[in-house]
Write a structure and sequence with these properties.
Elements lengths: L1 H7 L5 H13 L11 H8 L3 H14 L2 E4 L12 E4 L9 H17 L6 H13 L1
Length: about 130
């Protein structure tokens, strides 16, 4: 199912789609786990690790993948675990993907806590009166 989903995603650049398809190939449908090492994934995609990470960021920005860092049990780093969002289906145009990225970025910006303006203004007024 994951491979079919990845193959039907439209609007990605070819290299990003290769990464998505390779991730889907590693996806275990029974456990939902997907945890190839970055080097193994880069080798399977026939690209360098830096290029792989750039395309992974694109897939995360579009909401197709969530990357979860894992430790190796000895305080070091283990391979990442990837969560594929198989429920996301998009239209056939790059415009739809662009709108999705913009909405994801707006959601991140809107969730950043803003300072309380009333306390800032009252402290500023008090300091100018003193």
């Amino acid at each position: 199912m994951a491979l079919i989903w990845a193959a039907n995603v439209k609007g990605l650049k070819p290299a990003a789609k290769i990464v998505l398809i390779q991730l889907a190939d590693f996806h275990n449908k029974e456990t939902g786990q997907c945890n190839p090492s970055a080097q193994r994934l880069a080798d399977e995609c026939e690209m360098g690790r830096a290029t792989l990470f750039r395309h992974m960021t694109t897939l995360e920005d579009f909401g197709f993948v969530t990357r979860h860092a894992r430790g190796d049990g000895d305080g070091g780093r283990g391979s990442n675990q990837y969560e594929l969002h198989l429920d996301i289906t998009l239209g056939r145009t790059r415009w739809n993907l662009t709108l999705l990225v913009i909405s994801n970025l707006c959601a991140k910006v809107l969730t950043v806590p803003r300072p309380d303006r009333s306390s800032f203004l009252s402290s500023t007024i008090r300091s100018t009166r003193a």
